Amino acid sequence: MGFLDSTTNNLIVDAVLTNTGRSLLARNDGSFSIHKFAASDDEVDYNIIAKYGRNVGAEKITKNTPVFEACTNQSYAQKFKLVSISNPNLLRLPSLSLSGDSAVSGQSNVVTLGVNTQKSSTLSVEQVITNESSIDVELQDNTFSVDVPSLFMQISNTTPQFVDNQQRAKYLLTRSANKNSYGGSTVQFVVSVKSLSNATFSVYGMTANKSVIKSYVRVSGMQSGSVIDITVLINQNL
Predict the structure, then answer these.
(1) Do 226 and 108 sit in the same domain of this protein?
(2) Are 119 and 113 in contact (CB under 8 A)?
(3) Does residue 17 have a pLDDT over 90?
């Protein structure tokens, strides 16, 4: 669903079903039922608030921000979903931090893998917060969504919820039992490289170096809405 700008005071709503929604509707067995929805602010640049202040910045966002049309591909629609929090005094939101084994660079959010000796890596993503002692209980994630390019890799010992037409596999993972010092949640998983041919590197390898495929894994907290994009480099020589 998208709210389209208009030159009048009328509010125009452009609503479409995603590809998954259309597939469910096509069953035509009476099982299709819309029982919840999500809102997002993918279009909003909050740096405007920092630059112009809360009041003027909010006005500039309202009047000048172009709004996306509704998108049928769920992989691209609503990447930054809004969350509802009952705490009226909440000032800061948590973010996600990456750590892991020797193949993981937490500072740059880069994982380096290969097709020979370094075919897998253990990743740990946890909730952290700046200038606060704890994370609000409503923002503590119980479930994480992990999007993986299924053409190149997979999460070991786990079955994806689905694979979309962009070959992005979505996994739903439950947090670890223990919480960190902020009360934040942690999720651990193993990413492993699939069997890749020389032709795959020839087609998908980087322009400057065909022996390296550059791709991305996205981890999202289902309760907090926090997102981290992890760069994965698959080196043919490793």
Answers:
(1) yes
(2) yes
(3) no
Residues 9 and 103 both lie in one domain: no
- Our count of domains for the chain comes to 2
Q: Is the pLDDT of residue 216 over 60?
A: yes
Only one residue has tokens 């894994």, namely 217
For residue 224, the enclosing domain spans 95-235
pTM, two decimals, is: 0.76
Helix (H, G, I), strand (E, B), or coil: what is residue 51? helix
Backbone angles phi, psi at 52, to 5 degrees: -110, -5
- Per-residue exposure over 143-167, b if at least 16 CB sit within 10 Å of its own CB, e if not: ebbbbbbbbbbbbeeeebeeebeee
**What is the per-residue pLDDT across 169-194, written as a single tens digit (0 to 9) for each?**
999 999 999 999 999 999 999 999 99
Q: Do 224 and 125 form a contact (C-beta atoms < 8 A)?
A: no
